[in-house]
Amino acid sequence: MRGPGPRTLTGAARLAGVIGWPVAHSRSPSLHGFWLAEHGIDGAYVPLPVRPEDFAAAMAALPRLGFRGANVTVPHKEAALAACARLSDEARRIGAVNTLVADETGALEGRNTDGFGFIENLKAGARGWTAADGPAVVLGAGGAARAVVVALLEAGAPQIRLLNRGRDRADRLAADLGDRRVAVSDWARRADLLAEAVLLVNTTSLGMKGQPPLELDLARLPGAALVNDIVYVPLETPLLAAARARGHRVVDGLGMLLHQARPGFAAWFGVMPQVTPALRAHVLATL
Ligand code: ATR
User: Fold this and answer.
1) Is residue 264 scored above 80 in pLDDT?
2) Which of 87, 80, 85, 7 has its CA nearest to residue 39?
3) What confidence tens digit (pLDDT) does each residue in 52-65 have?
4) Cα separation of 11 and 170, whole Å?
5) Which residues sit opposite 86 in a β-bridge?
6) Is residue 77 annotated as a catalytic residue, yes or no?
7) Which of 2, 39, 53, 94 would you call most buried, defined as having the most Cβ atoms within 10 angstroms of its Cβ?
8) Of all protein residues, whose CA lies closest to atom 18 belonging to ligand 1?
9) Which is the catalytic residue, given 68, 76, 77, 259?
10) How far is the CA of 271 from the centre of ligand 1 (A)?
11) CA gap 65, 283 in Å, rounded
C-alpha cells in the first residue's frame, strides 16, 4: 500500500513508529505513510515489534535513536503510562498512553489521543452534533470505553449511562473518574436506558468480525439519536445496520482510528494532517 507519489528519504529524515506486540496487524504505518507522501515529508513511520519484557528499554532507547516519538499499542498502553517523564492530563485521566512525543532533551511525554479521535470522528460524521445535547449511553468498560467516557465528559455531556456485562468494571471506571455525570446501570437494562439518549456508543468487541453481534433492541432510542460503533471490522456492524434501518444517523468506527493519529503526526512531522475520502479508501483497502 502506498500513498500518492514516490518518496525518498535523506539522512535527515524525521522518525516515528508504532510500538506493539504483535504489531504486524497495525494500520498505523500505512496511515502515517499516506500522510508523509501526501505532504512530501522527509520522514518515516515504522512498525516497532517490542516484547513486553523489552518495553521499558525500548522506550528509553527511542529518543537516543533519534525518534521524535511513537504510537503505543496493545499490550503496552498502561506500561507506557508508568514509564513516561511527563503525562498529558488526558493520558492521566484515561490511564493509558497511545502517543509518545520526545522533547529537545529526549524526555518522553505520554499523551492519549483516543478521546480526541472519538470526538473528531463524531463531529466530522454528524454535522451539528455536540456532546452537550443530552445523555449518552456507553456500552463497555474496557480501555476504549475509558477514552470515550473521558472525552464525552470533557466535551460537556450532561449524563453518561455506562453499562458493562461485568458491572464491577463499569463501577470501577466510574469511581476512578469521580464524576457524578457517570451513572452505572446493569447490562440487562440496556434497552430501557436508551430512552432520551442523544448518543449510543458501542465500545465492546460485540459485532466485530468473529465475535457475536450486540443484542440490543433500539425501540426506545429517540429518532434523533446518533449511533456510533468503535468496531470498524466490519465497517457496518449489525448495530449500525439496525440503527440505519430505523433512520438514525450513524458514524462508523474507522474515523476514530484515523483522527486519533492526527495529533501524533503533527507533533513528529510538523503538519496537522486531515482525514479525507482518499485516506479512508487507502486504509479501508488494508482492512
Ligand atoms: P478495549 O480495550 O478495546 O476496550 P477490552 O478491555 O478487552 O478491550 O474490553 C472489551 C469490552 O467488550 C469489555 O467491556 C467487555 O465486557 P466485560 O468487561 O464484561 O468482559 C466487552 N465484551 C466482550 N465480549 C462481550 C460479550 N460477549 N458480551 C458483552 N460484553 C462483551
Assistant:
1) yes
2) 7
3) 999 999 999 999 99
4) 49
5) 109
6) yes
7) 94
8) 166
9) 77
10) 35
11) 28
